[in-house]
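Project standup — Tuesday

K.O.: blocked on the structure for the chain from last sprint. Re-posting the sequence here as requested.
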Amino acid sequence: MLRDCAFVSLCLCVFVLNGEAQVTQTERVDFPPGGLLRLNNSVGELTIEGWDLPEVEITTIKSTAQDPDRIRITAERRGNDVIVTTQFPRYPVFPPPLFLRSGADFVLEYRIKAPRNAGIVVNHDAGEVHIENMMGDVRVTVSKGRIALRLPSDESYTIDAKTDIGDVVSDFEGQKHQRPWIFGHRFAAKSAPAGRQLYLRVGFGDIAILKTRQPPYGVR
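H.V.: unblocked you, prediction finished:
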């Protein structure tokens, strides 16, 4: 569901295989210059890739043996923000492990293409977040899983990356510290004031900050 922004196209496909429904939906919408892409409560595998078009393409794939409509993914425009929100069944006391929440119960995948200069804010539950060839500020938190960034090597970055339990690796220069009395690590790097800001947090899992391949990706 998309509100308050120009609607370009919508494609919805539904497949049933071995009693499991797979619903794929793609939306393409205009993205405001200098805008911010926000993802709230996403879960599963999320990939955000930069491209040269002035619009954002959001493809979501839901796989579940139960009613796929109980998992709701909505997008809306608030000012210069495009916000993608996921609502899925909650468990009464303690959340189940990942293999139950986004495996045997349901699987979610997000494939998003956005303008390279867009800012990104992601609040991710369990799973992996991949961000490729983006040039704006990035702020990502993951409760359990992995963050992997592939970024242009000719940009400068201020990096603040930390895991509670896990490792941090980076192709960019900076200082890495093992946090005392915990199994986590922290990596920090400072750039000029105009540099891109990277704020990355993982509760349980790893962070990888890698340089993208050259030449840069073209228009897709």
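K.O.: great, moving the ticket to review. The helical segments are 98-104. The chain has a mean pLDDT of 82.
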